[in-house]
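Appendix B, Record 12. Input sequence as logged:
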Amino acid sequence: MRIIHHGAVKGVTGSCHQLIISNTESILVDCGMFQGEESRHDLSIDFDINTVKALLVTHCHIDHVGRTPYLLAAGVTGPIYASQATAELLPLVIEDALKIGVTQDPELVETCLRLLKRQLKPISFKQWQTLDEISSPARFRLQRAGHILGSAYIEIDVGNGNDTHRFVFSGDLGAPYTPLLPSPKPPYKADTLVIESTYGDKLHEGRKIRAKRLKQVIERAVADKGVVLIPAFSIGRTQELLYELEQMIHSAPKRSFWHDIEVIVDSPMAANFTAQYRRFKSLWDEEAKSRVAKGRHPLNFEHLYTIDTHQEHEATIQYLKRRHKPAIVIAASGMCSGGRIVNYLEAFLDEPTADVIFVGYQGSGTPGRDIQKYGPRGGYVVLNNQRIDIRAQIHTISGYSAHADQANLVRFVKGIRKKPSHIKIVHGDEDAKAALAQKLKDILSHNVKIEIAT
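Logged structural output:
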């Protein structure tokens, strides 16, 4: 048995890992789209799928599921296993991705979604599921990863008795003490571990510190009555930000600006996902559940406005351009590589009273990375083939990442009672992967093979 990586080896996108069980049978873990410098014009499947019997999905971010339609088009007819929440969200993600990046043909979109829904198999967390599609004894289970709603890391057992080999695929692991979702707990054992390394060379700020920083940045930003722009992924980051903003408003003095400021979520996708977050309250952590029990609505509070249509979107930008009252706008995409946030950036990046707050990872080659890097120097960014000088204030609060940092990743590995003999590091820039590899070598036995996947 071996693992072939079809993405997330030269950066943080395109996650797709093929577990070869025999010459005739294999399983895919994720099938994501490439973004940023890794983007490809041809999104078709460029590897042999004849042996693929099933797709196991860790979560529904586009860099983990974006190539799924091409997998279906290439003829993979096996089941697509995912957690119950991910199975609800996945068709929404795929439909949006198809309409934005592939085709506006409603018949083509509907055909793809029909195939997807037919092959989707929702699975409960913590329950072993036999892979009947594989002739060798094989089973898997999903464990909560704490990254976004429904996210999982996956344990796969192949073989029987003492000959069983356990593979663990981390997917994207969440940081502990994040709003809404509980922290991931390490598996009891692993023989081979495939682990992400997005922040393998960095440490996040603690939750209290980052919440205080976010509050301070917003209070400074709105002092000049400017617009605060927060690029955020529709799934996960947006909901966590709303949760934190609701707390700031709830705890603020009654006559402060916090009780008047408008919080605008300009993303139909984010609105759909926020509704799903509210639907799956059972997956929230205890803190979030206790707020609901007290009659609070962390994801649906007063002065929260959701923009739906494109016409409303354009009208909102013009409204914000004319007004002299601060507002907070949360819009996708998180790396500013598309979506409605781009129009806001085009409208406000050259205004000194505007502020942009980055709360998530900005991939190499994305406009978000350019704004983050060159904005504080008074530089510029190219959006839609147009140069825009950056006069807005640029802030980065890394602690709001939905990814585990180096300490969290190391803690996850150390928490495995029966340690792996082989660790493969994926899903990170070169420096992040190398730093995590060295850290793991420092703490683990020399008998553990630690490898940066290629």
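The first helix runs from residue 62 to 65.
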